[in-house]
Amino acid sequence: MLAKVSELLHSARGADLPQAEQLLSQAFDLDSRSPRAALEWMRERALLGLLKGGGEIAFEDSISRAKEVEVKESDVAFARVASFLFQGDTVGAAALLPKWDDKANKDAWYELLAGASLARAGDTHAVDRFAAATELDPGLVIAQIHLARATALDGDAAKAMERAKAVKDTLPGRPEGAALVTLAWARDPARSDTAPPDADETIKNAADLPTPLQFIPHAVLAIRAVGAHDWATAKDEVQKGLAVADGPGVAAWLGSIALDTGDEQLARKAALSAVSFSAVYPPARMLAARVALVGARLDEALKATEELETSSPDVAVVRGAVAYERLDLDGLSRALEAMPESEQKLPFLAAVQLAPSVLLGQGAIDPAKLVDMADDAAPWSDLVAMDAALDQGAMDQADSIAAQWKGGEDRPLRVLRLARLSRYEAHLDAAEADSAAALSGGTVTPRVLAERVFVMVARGRAVDAGPLLAKYPLVLGPLGTWLSAYAVASQGKIEEAKARTSTLDVPATGAPLTARVIAATALAAMHDRHRAADVLKPILAAGYVGVDIQNAALAVGFKRADHKGKPPTFDGP
């Protein structure tokens, strides 16, 4: 009977547990003081918790019986760890490991529960514990499942797929193998757009999956819905996935999918879930940082990345995005250069890699590619694409990108771009509302202040620009003076504007495009045609002919030439 119990426990089928319990009961009837029966009972309790969740599982009776029949303390260690783990006391479970590691490290069940505890705590060494369990007992299926899952969530993508396929081969016809292959595919940053057949099988057999794998069908359905722009379904599936999330890795991943839907509150909920499991788990902190970015809380985003590896692509995205929004070329370069060269070309980083060129106004992007770029899953793709479209005067593409944002256009960083689009298209009421919302909705950056001043001038309220700029003297630096001079000159006070800028150097060609456009616009308003033309010539030559650039160019004497189906060009004065 006990041999059969061991066989059932090793196979890790939830449906077999009632039979295992019945056999254990019969075994105790035959020999109530059997040490082996006592040990198998504790293992059955542990497996039940791993397969179905253990909030209501008590270990006191099984541990007491094991002590009474003199089961070795080292053989009981896994049950003590499991008792803490299943009651939600992850800290208590992890605290037992130093005590028992040397004494129980030859027990596969101990290594399995140690791995489960570390995984719940967000410790990537959980993979090592699961691997040790499979080496000590190669037939322990639950250890194989957890090893493949942990590798997919926190390890190398290629190794994750290799292990998932190995489990699938070991468990022919069982849903766990297909689910693990699906998970490995879904977690691969370089995955193909077409899901493996295992994904459909996993969704079909969702009800048969054990608790540790129940999130996978929801995650896959959410990913598919994101690809189809079916935001309601994607959000619903993320919610369902979070309801069965059993660790920070799962919650953080679901949160990253939630970010793709543009639902900041759902992503924040996932981040809080991940942090509740482990406040030190790096992906949980990264999710918190990315959620802060969506809300334009730039300082909060940077704070969340403190003490994380700067070489991480995820950290590079956050720090690069913050630098991009602040027109900080040096910060953007540092964020990218901190990564290993082998990772700098990851598709995930495509937009951040392109950001320096857009920020500098160098190497104009083919307008036909901008709309597709904005629809890319790479972080910041939509914002960089919109900036490029507006800077290059590709208004049709800018309108198309704005149309893609329907349903998620209230995000502060998008609102900022929509304000500029509305101003360029002379929808000044909309520009007023959006620029004010961008100012109040997140961290105030040079981009935010510049757009707000441009809108004020366009609406004949240049007099309000001075008090606004005075509130944020540290945000703009010398750009604040150029913006102030632009506002003053727009009121007809040309000499006062010239006096304000008399000691300033004009931004060099290597300065951010926004800074040069602000200076050129101010110089044009001050009728300083020579210096304005010097700033504008390299900008126009690079193919950047946004509305602000065009207006400044025309004001200082450039001649416009229109071309059917192409942006205009300008001949120097």
List the helices and strands and how they pair.
Blueprint: H1 2-11, H2 17-30, H3 35-52, H4 60-68, H5 73-86, H6 90-104, H7 108-120, H8 126-136, H9 141-154, H10 157-170, H11 175-187, H12 197-204, H13 215-227, H14 231-243, H15 248-261, H16 264-277, H17 282-294, H18 298-304, H19 313-325, H20 329-337, H21 350-360, H22 367-374, H23 381-392, H24 395-404, H25 412-424, H26 428-441, H27 446-458, H28 465-471, H29 473-476, H30 478-490, H31 494-501, H32 513-525, H33 529-541, H34 547-555, E1 559-563, E2 566-571
Antiparallel strand pairs: 1-2
Explain what this protein looks like in three dimensions.
There is one protein chain. 69% of the residues lie in helices and 2% in strands. The protein is an all-alpha fold. It has a domain at 1-185: Serine Threonine Protein Phosphatase 5, Tetratricopeptide repeat. Strands 1-2 form a two-stranded antiparallel ribbon. Helix 11 (175-187) packs across helix 13 (215-227), helix 15 packs antiparallel against helix 16 (264-277) and helix 32 runs antiparallel to helix 33. The longest helix is centred in the N-terminal third of the chain and has 18 residues, at 35-52.
State the main characteristics.
mainly alpha, 69% helix, 2 strands, elongated, Serine Threonine Protein Phosphatase 5, Tetratricopeptide repeat
CATH H-level superfamily title of the domain at 1-185: Tetratricopeptide repeat domain
Q: Give me the CATH architecture of the domain at 1-185, please.
A: Alpha Horseshoe
Rg over CA atoms, rounded to whole Å, is: 30 Å
What shape does the CA trace take? elongated
Task: Give the strand line-up of the largest sheet.
Answer: 1-2
**Unreliable residue stretches:** none
Q: What oligomeric assembly is this protein in? A: single chain
* Percent of residues in β-strands: under 5%
Whole-Å distance between the termini? 97 Å
SS class? mainly alpha
The percentage helix is: 55-70%
CATH class of the domain at 1-185: Mainly Alpha
